[in-house]
């Protein structure tokens, strides 16, 4: 090969991250469990070592050729436990940082069911164990407490210990982990998707860099396609295995009575709970007394079946009892199969559709609140509006922002925009509306302290924010399990009420806005929340918005398209409803069945 070509190849190898390797590590079967204490047992001599040697710079854009740290991983398994041992040689161990990824340590990425899917799923996660034994991991899925992070259910034990040379000097550390594989087939050939990373530092205060086992292109838990596999091996098919109670314990947790579905099974909302009660009693007994795996499996199957057979009580069938519809449903057929024959029938069918949407998807709008007040603070062309709502002895607030167009004359038509957070700085779509002569009312939907202002409802299923302060979320027969899409629609309605309040109580707003020309819009998840704004609207008595309710409900969107100076296609796209997304509503009806039940 010519010298210049050799140089080009070496330059490319040094400048670009390593390609995906999808490596394989064989986990060797051992007949007895081992202690997890950071001190390697003799059993580890049976496990092959696999080097963790893809050393990447802090930005993970190029490999480091003079890496001062080296590491290897080994794997053993015994029944429902997988053991991992990391041996790290590191001349500079630093565990003082409060940030877990900035401490010397091991990070284990797990794709429990090894589906190699380029998007986060609930079986994906990571656990970090520092050289000093500090442990952390990824957060729950979308901060939903009832979808626990995989490490919180599968990490059984861990330990770390420093390594020293003969003179007593620190030369590195070991990390030992026991991970549950009780939800997988306990047989040779079973794969667990994994990637291993070592966090290291060249000197005190320097930026951390990483060594990877399978690929330097690691994208974390958002893409596991380049991770490797740990493969179970060495089982003779005869040696007795420890009892595997993992799935039984998970189902017992799901069936145990609790106030929240994050902690167990909410009671009092099912047509019949007696079968679950009987199966739960038998499962707890099996956990204490069963001597065989078949007894454990039988108790688990019975409890899992009882959970799957639960049906929500209510005026409509449980979703699991609804017929399968493979095409778009006929809007002119009632739920009971009757056909719409007249305009009077259609009005009834419209009402049924709205009721079905609230029952199954959104939750029911609460009655109008007892009172609402608003106060505005001006800054240039923006107005921050403090909205305070009182109802049922509770008070809550949120702060939408009103943006006024730079040109044109009042009264301005209004676009109510569901947004992540309200800001006095217009985003690109706001500028298009403002330049066209529309005022924009931005409703802050997300309730998160790091944004510095309260929102309408948290976008994480934890049911915080102004709406849930007034109407606490609860799984019950009364319909208090209202979803976030409905809460956001409620926030838009209260925002309009606030504009009407200001028009009636503040002379500066008396003729500022034309509330007869108003539309609610939103992008992505907020577009999915917009259909809830079309449900029966419940405004405060006496507000001007109430007088325009019927007209807006029937014709406003079409009128907005006709009157808008923007291109029709752009306006229609901004008004697109999109499909209703159940994942954003989070009206939970039952704990998810375990897909890995054998």
Question: How would you portray this structure in words?
Answer:
The protein has 598 residues and is an alpha+beta fold. The chain folds into three domains: 16-233, Immunoglobulin-like; 246-308; 371-585. Helix content is 25%, strand content 24%. The protein has 14 helices and 22 strands. The chain has helices spanning 3-15, 150-154, 246-255, 274-289, 293-308, 343-362, 428-435, 466-470, 484-505, 525-529, 544-547, 549-563, 568-574, 582-585, and strands spanning 24-29, 50-52, 54-56, 70-78, 81-89, 105-111, 124-130, 135-137, 155-164, 170-180, 191-200, 209-212, 228-233, 257-258, 265-266, 371-379, 382-391, 394-398, 401-403, 412-419, 439-444, 513-522. The strands form three sheets. Strands 1, 2, 3, 4, 5, 6, 7, 8, 9, 10, 11, 12 and 13 form a 13-stranded mixed beta sheet that branches. Strands 16, 17, 18, 19, 20, 21 and 22 form a seven-stranded mixed beta sheet that branches. A hairpin with a 2-residue loop joins strand 17 and strand 18 (394-398). Helix 4 packs antiparallel against helix 5. It starts with a helix and ends in a 13-residue tail after the last helix. Mean pLDDT is 84; it is low at 3-20 and 541-598.
Which structural class is indicated by helix and strand composition?
A: alpha+beta
Q: Assign a percent range to the helix content.
A: 25-40%
Largest sheet: 13 strands, mixed
Termini gap: 56 Å
What CATH architecture of the largest domain would you give? Sandwich
CATH names the topology of the largest domain as: Immunoglobulin-like
Question: What is the average of the pLDDT values?
Answer: 84
Number of helices: 14
Q: Give Rg in angstroms.
A: 30 Å
CA-based shape: globular
CATH class (first level) name of the largest domain = Mainly Beta
Q: How many domains make up the 3D coordinates?
A: 3
